[in-house]
Amino acid sequence: MADLWQNAMDHAVALARTAGAVVREALQDERKVMMKSSSVDLVTQTDQKVEQLIIQSVKDKFPTHRFIGEESVAAGEACVLTDSPTWIIDPIDGTTNFVHGYPFVAISIGFAVNKQLEFGVVYSCVEDKMFTARRGKGAFCNGRPLQVSDQKEISQSIVATEFGSIRDPETVDKVLSSMRKILCIPVHGIRGAGTAAVNMCHVACGCVDAYYEIGIHVWDVAAAAVIVSEAGGVLMDVTGGQLDLMSRRVLAASSRSIGERISREIEAFAPVRDDAPPPQ
Ligand SMILES: O=P(O)(O)OC(CO)CO
Ligand SMILES: [Mg+2]
Ligand SMILES: [Mg+2]
């Protein structure tokens, strides 16, 4: 049987490539930075332009589909995942990197139907790496198959994480305490690319063995979640329970045992959910 969503996936790949060219071009110019929820939660006109470009093109081709887009939600759109075909878009994952010219910047496009993720496209546009995965059909980078690492020994692992953009001292203490405990296992090292989507693609590639973060959003992880699981990895909540895409918490690992071992060291906290009703 023909794959029902292959057309949509082909369109997502083409759009990610076009969007990536826009982002690369914008890296040559001065970038005007605006703030969202805080002085470390940044947005630029390129984020907004790229999201509009993607959404308009999808609307023209698939008029009944719905959207969850980072900058649309920031502008007041609801962040609700229904059973309808839904595109989950982060126009620039790694805006802080983009602002500073730090070379990990990705366009992330996930697609869900009946609340199940069907495909994910992450284009790391400075490196020109196109990560793709269709549910049940494997994960690829520039067409080459991806496989997570077979590392089973936590003390020989590299773990990716980020400091995040929630900077009240109590939260920062929890973030640092988790990192401290993981460092002291000890693991080989802790890394962070500055984009959740690329960190997860690094799990899929096998160059890191796990990635976790609290404070990310559904648009940061939806696309890369398909890429990790199709590369043979596992996704879970930071407590080791089931992943909840709207919870703003994710742990991706090369195996359940590595994931659960890391989850034991994480001081979990619960940011306001992505699907929480807006404050009155
Ligand atoms: O750069 P963005 O899209 O704000 O995303 C951050 C996390 O929220 C990096 O993954
Ligand atoms: Mg993001
Ligand atoms: Mg973004």
UniProtKB/TrEMBL annotation:
It catalyses: 1D-myo-inositol 5-phosphate + H2O = myo-inositol + phosphate; scyllo-inositol 1-phosphate + H2O = scyllo-inositol + phosphate; 1D-myo-inositol 2-phosphate + H2O = myo-inositol + phosphate; 1D-myo-inositol 1-phosphate + H2O = myo-inositol + phosphate. It comes from Myripristis murdjan. The lineage of its organism: Eukaryota, Metazoa, Chordata, Craniata, Vertebrata. Its cofactor is Mg(2+). It is found in: Cytoplasm. Its EC number is 3.1.3.25. InterPro entries: IMPase, Inositol_monoP_metal-BS, Inositol_monoPase_Li-sen, Inositol_monophosphatase-like, Inositol_monophosphatase_CS. This is Inositol-1-monophosphatase. Mg(2+) 1 binds at residues 70, 92. Transmembrane segments: none annotated. Keywords: Cytoplasm, Hydrolase, Lithium, Magnesium, Metal-binding. Homodimer. It comes from the Eukaryota. CDD domains: IMPase. Coiled coil: none annotated. The keyword Cytoplasm applies. Mg(2+) 2 binds at residues 90, 93, 220.
